[in-house]
Design a protein that fits this description.
With about 280 residues, this protein is of the alpha/beta class. The chain has a domain at about 1-80 and about 245-280: HUPs (Rossmann fold, 3-Layer(aba) Sandwich). The chain contains ten helices and ten strands. It has helices at about 20-35, 50-65, 80-90, 105-110, 130-140, 150-155, 195-205, 220-230, 260-265, 270-280; strands at about 5-10, 35-40, 75, 95-100, 145, 160-165, 175, 185-190, 210-215, 240. Strands 7-6-10-9 form a four-stranded mixed sheet, with helices on one face. It has a three-stranded parallel sheet with strand order 1-2-3. The radius of gyration is 20 Å and the shape is globular.
């Protein structure tokens, strides 16, 4: 096996909190145990919510924790052309189709919920004729592009991935991926030529990532990533899903819920050792 490569890939749409600290510390610790390298990646495809000051804060917080990484750091907003190329490869396989549905229409016709609890898309626009698609595109209707999951899974067949944990050095296990749980996911959004699912698979391949450490809240998303890895003929990855840091109400820490940031804790006098103890990482 090539030298192990891991990555910590935060989005600069807010300040890092203790949950991010746990994920980062686990990633760097795993890289050390494996004799590999931990990379920092800035996942800023959401140009509306991601801000330069939050990117600067990520570098500051991680350095304060005593972590370092190879340069240059991969920044997703500089790679839209590469994500579009990957989408075009899928389009050439007849696996992408335009979707013109609004959020309200998707919710009204939903056929259940996806693993995140969002309305599961019913595949409405998959059944549009070419003439209907062309008419809507020429009219300038807002469009996003979805993966035809049934056609995609017909190409790949049964999908598996390698799971390691709770220690990164534990004997690996083989797990089955179930992308059908997600339906026809969006791979190119209305506001950007990519999505989280597409960009993360393209970047993991580009950086030669061998191991991904991520929170249990992203475990189900692995279904889609494994499917895209197979379709785009990229290298497969070993996964480790770590516990989440919860607040006093038993909810996971979140930027949107205004969980205390590392910057806040530092201003209160916390040290990096305090952070490590708080997340159970000694």
């Amino acid at each position: 096996m090539s030298q192990p490569r891991l990555r910590f890939a935060p989005s600069p749409n807010g300040l890092l909190h203790l949950g991010h600290a746990l994920s980062a510390l686990l990633t760097w610790d795993a890289a050390q145990k494996l004799g590999g390298t931990a990379y920092l990646r800035i996942e800023d495809i959401d140009r509306e919510r991601c801000k330069p000051e939050f990117t600067a804060a990520i570098f500051e917080d991680l350095a304060w924790l005593g972590l370092s990484w190879p340069e240059p750091v991969l920044v997703q907003s500089e790679r839209f052309e590469l994500y579009a190329e990957a989408a075009n490869r899928l389009r050439d396989m007849d696996l992408l189709y335009p979707c013109f549905c609004t959020r309200t229409e998707i919710a009204e016709k939903a056929i259940g919920t996806d693993p995140d609890g969002a309305p599961l898309y019913a595949g409405t626009c998959r059944h549009l004729s070419n003439a209907e698609r062309i008419e809507k595109l020429e009219r300038g209707d807002k469009v996003q592009f979805r993966l035809d999951s049934q056609a995609a899974m017909a190409r790949t067949g049964l999908l598996t991935f390698t799971l390691v944990g709770p220690s990164i050095l534990d004997r690996p296990q083989i797990r089955y991926a179930r992308p059908e749980r997600w339906g026809d996911v969006v791979l190119q959004r209305k506001d950007t030529p990519t999505s989280y699912h597409l960009s993360v698979v393209v970047d993991d391949a580009a950086q030669g990532i061998t191991h991904v450490t991520r929170g249990k809240d992203l475990e189900a998303a692995t279904d889609i990533h494994v499917l895209l890895q197979m379709l785009l003929a990229t290298s497969t990855v070993c996964y480790h899903f770590h516990r989440l840091v919860l607040d006093n109400a038993g909810e996971k820490l979140s930027k949107s819920r205004k969980s205390p940031s590392l910057r806040d804790l530092r201003a209160e006098g916390w040290t990096p050792d305090d952070v490590r103890r708080a997340v159970g990482f000694h």
